[in-house]
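idk why but the lab printer keeps eating my pages so im just putting this in chat instead. protein + flavin-adenine dinucleotide:
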Amino acid sequence: MNKPGLSRRDFVNGCALSLAAGSTISPLDAIAQNMLDPAALPSDYYPPVKQGMRGSHDGSFEVAHDMRDGKRWSAVDAGDPTYDLVVVGGGLSGLSAAYFYRKQHGPDARILILDNHDDFGGHAKRNEFWHDGEMYLVNGGTLNVEAPQQYNSAAAGLLWELGIDRARYFEKNRKMFSRYREMGLKGSMFFDRETFGNEQLVVGYGSDPFDEFIAKTPLSEEVKRDAVRLYSDKKDYFPGLSSDEIRDKLAHISYRDYVTDVVGCHPDVVRLFDSSQLGIFVTAMDAIPAIYCREMGYPGFDGLNLDEVPVDQLAHEPGGQHGRENTERAESGDPDMYFPDGNATIARLLVRSFLPDAVPGSSVEDVVSAKLDYSLLDRNDNKIRIRLNSTVVNVAHVSDEQVETNYVLGDRAYSVKSKAVVMACWNNVIPHICHEFSDRQREALLYGQKSPLVYTGVLFSNWKSFADAGISSVSAPGGYHPSIGLPPSLELGEYQTSRDPDKPIVVRMSCYFNEPGLSRREQHRVGRSRMLATPFSTFEHHIRDQLSRILGPTGFDDERDILGITVNRWPHGYTYSYNPLFDPDEWAFTTTSERPAIIGRQRLGRIAIANADAAASPHTDAAIGEAFRAVNELMSSS
Ligand SMILES: Cc1cc2nc3c(=O)[nH]c(=O)nc-3n(C[C@H](O)[C@H](O)[C@H](O)COP(=O)(O)OP(=O)(O)OC[C@H]3O[C@@H](n4cnc5c(N)ncnc54)[C@H](O)[C@@H]3O)c2cc1C
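predcted complex ->
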């Protein structure tokens, strides 16, 4: 039906189509006759360069919200042959599911991947800025391969098969952060007048001795004294309690309450840690158990009579806190790996493995700079097709051997049939798409709330203002963007992050939406609504305002120095992981099969469930590992 080269843009532009000498038909007739594939993309389609509001961009979520609110569509046959596998969700989990399925079933397996966004990769998206013929990259979401040594074997194997060789990577990229240090740049903390009364940038956060750093801040003498005490005291705040009893106490008190009520510090001391934990938990400090902070190396625990958790216990298991909290454990292997576009590199490598013509090149190094041809993603003759802008609204068995999947693309619904489906979309979407689950499974799938966070890339014409301030990153507790910084200094093939402060660079900024005082799940839910109601203009105002206040004294001029802004909003961001302040201890600290993620991910006939949510772990290796499990479950059921 699809003629290569005929595109949706042709349709939109209303061009007539030449079929054979002397005969033309209108695009509408072509669609009616199944000759024009509505999913085909024009050859100049290239979403990574789009700026403004990205992430869950306008047009990507409205159909899903209508579906949640009860809207139903009647679908027409898409005209595709029956697939072996349909994958719902084109994130790292969905792409990995296609990879594993093809590996198991052979290169002739016919697979369709459907995703509601205009680009593949799910959270693992890239933002591309161009200036004077040069490309500048930043991750739009999924940032890094965190603690690669701890990757589950399915994920570690997949990265290796895709050509990601850690030894080769680190040969070039060991200095990704130390390069800034060698230039004399340090971390810093910005105290804004709205939160702290006085406005001041204090350099040396994280590098200078804490008491020297804190002495330079505009904090009151009482706060300074308490902060130093928190770092230096080796007091046993729970005398007479056993290690297990102390662990239990720390699991059921927030770090905020531990610092203020147990250690007895001024509440402003807690603010100092706001920006560092938000990137991990997204909630306010009142929803983070003290035990998680202890495992991550936060201060205040040195005098406690606590035994260490055995190294590697639960290291790969879902259900814990954010993941690799135990700093010592996480740092025991290779450091985290960063690519210039984050884990979008992995998504691109996966797509290259199915559709080499669409992603030219042959190595990890060249995939970073490859110009991807999106018009080749969904061609008739592909064994694996990736169909973007397509929101799945219904998945149902039509027999024991066949499943029908309906999706909305543009203003029409289409249906395709397959022998099996992998749901690699979010857990709390699944019950709205598929109505065959038991009440128990449905409830389990709906349990978690994904966290709302925003990653922004700002293309600077130069970064002299950072260099002149002597900083590479800024923690801004209380600020709209609590975290601001230069990207890791990387080199992959022809791509190199700017090493010259006179040259452009993409500055990373992140912000988080939460609501102190509520449970973790409620903080995420309320924060998400606020995020979705926040227009680009508000983000832009805060970006310009914050950068001007922090870097203005060293010469930054937002009108002159900002060349581009991309705000990636992720209302459904990190996977929900369990938290003993609000969830049963067993969910947080054991591998019990009573965890909602485990109940929720059970295969249903020819439908298996992947996605990081199925592991209750917000990590790339969880996304890949769950894809591996889901594909294996289908194999064992056939
Ligand atoms: C801002 C951010 C930063 C992160 N940083 C890191 C990091 O540094 N390291 C790390 O390991 N992890 C990180 N993560 C976690 C990240 O979620 C995982 O690493 C991984 O990318 C998740 O992949 P996934 O395929 O499971 O889910 P997703 O990437 O969410 O992909 C699921 C896809 O399914 C689509 N979908 C949902 N419903 C439908 C439907 N009805 N029809 C069609 N498609 C649908 C979604 O829109 C999405 O595109 C980060 C996450 C976020 C949001």
